[in-house]
Design brief:
Strand order of the largest sheet: 1-2-3
Number of helices: 4
Largest sheet: 3 strands, parallel
Low-confidence stretches: none
Helix content: 25-40%
Oligomer: single chain
Radius of gyration: 16 Å
Structural class: alpha/beta
Order of helices and strands: EHEHHEHEEEE
CATH architecture: Alpha-Beta Barrel
Number of strands: 7
Number of domains: 1
CATH topology: TIM Barrel
Strand content: 5-15%
Shape: elongated
Mean pLDDT: 89
């Protein structure tokens, strides 16, 4: 439990629903929650978790699983448009994927900028 630990505690894989986040926050069991679209299943639920964290002084980080750039593009937009999400996120796994059919995101000095083009800002190769 957080109050018995001098080390900061972050919930990661243990938070897969808004209800699980509420329980941890209500009982003051964590200092931060790491969430993501693949973990909880929707952009709306990630926003709800981030809002709960922000209202209760809990840090909220965003991460993504390794996969196509399109997933990171959605996460970048989500992070940029949700005040409760920390600017320190675990995104950019697309860099280690070979054969990604999408292009349009890049990492510069550890940061990904929100694309300015329409949609998610990524395009399918060959179109």
């Amino acid at each position: 439990m957080k109050k018995h630990s001098p080390i900061k505690i972050e919930a990661d894989q243990s938070v897969r629903t808004v209800a699980e986040a509420q329980l941890l926050i209500k009982n003051r069991m964590v200092d931060s929650i790491n969430t993501g679209i693949p973990k909880v299943g929707s952009i709306g639920d990630v926003r709800k978790i981030a809002e709960l964290c922000e209202l209760n002084g809990i840090r909220c980080a965003l991460s993504n699983t390794a996969g196509s750039m399109v997933g990171d593009a959605a996460a970048v937009h989500l992070a940029a448009s949700t005040p409760g999400i920390s600017s320190l996120c675990e995104l950019g796994e697309f860099e280690v994927i070979t054969g990604d059919p999408f292009f349009g995101l890049s990492i510069d000095k550890g940061s990904i900028s929100v694309p300015e083009s329409e949609g998610l800002g990524v395009s399918l190769r060959g179109f």
